[in-house]
Amino acid sequence: MDSDAGSAADKVRMLCTTIMKTARQELMQRLDDADIGLSPHQFLVLRRISERAMALNEVSRDLGLDPSTLAPTVELLVRKGLVRRERDPLDRRRTPLSLTPEGSETLDRLQRSNGESPLHKSLSTMGPDKSQQLLSLLQEFVDSLDTHPIDETMHHCRNHSLDK
């Protein structure tokens, strides 16, 4: 790796650490303020399946978590009445997860509180054009990461660090 790319990679790591720390603290605060008894993992599952019904293995892949780690989280969401398991009419082995009306309402309530967050305020300050440019560049960067996989040892460590 040339020194410019190495230096840029170090800066990306530092910036991502700051963004993730802020995002994690902000999410914890929003969940505490809402007083609805959701953990960050539970919120992330609700958020992910709000876009479309998907199987547990799809959710776990998208969130970078092992299905065995995510299964108890999903089971708790089902028991709380926020998520339901469905049967796929085309593949009876597949059981997509989707939000119940109560799950949608819970997620909507949390999304409405998003306007006060530091991330939301910072993106608003940047304006719509720069915010969209940032999102586009981040998505391009993430897509590029998918074409340069981490070796299995590093991937395993990364997944477990998200559980803490």
From TrEMBL:
GO molecular function: DNA-binding transcription factor activity
A Gene Ontology BP annotation from the UniProt entry: response to stress
InterPro entries linked to this entry: HTH_MarR-typ, MarR/SlyA-like, WH-like_DNA-bd_sf, WH_DNA-bd_sf
Record region (Disordered): 89-128
Origin: domain of life: Bacteria
SUPFAM superfamilies referenced in this protein's UniProt entry, alphabetically: Winged helix' DNA-binding domain
One Pfam assignment: MarR_2
Bias-annotated ranges (Polar residues): 112-128
Gene3D superfamilies: Winged helix-like DNA-binding domain superfamily/Winged helix DNA-binding domain (1.10.10.10)
Start and end residues of each HTH marR-type domain: 12-143
Protein known as: HTH marR-type domain-containing protein
Native organism taxonomy: Bacteria, Bacillati, Chloroflexota, Ktedonobacteria, Ktedonobacterales
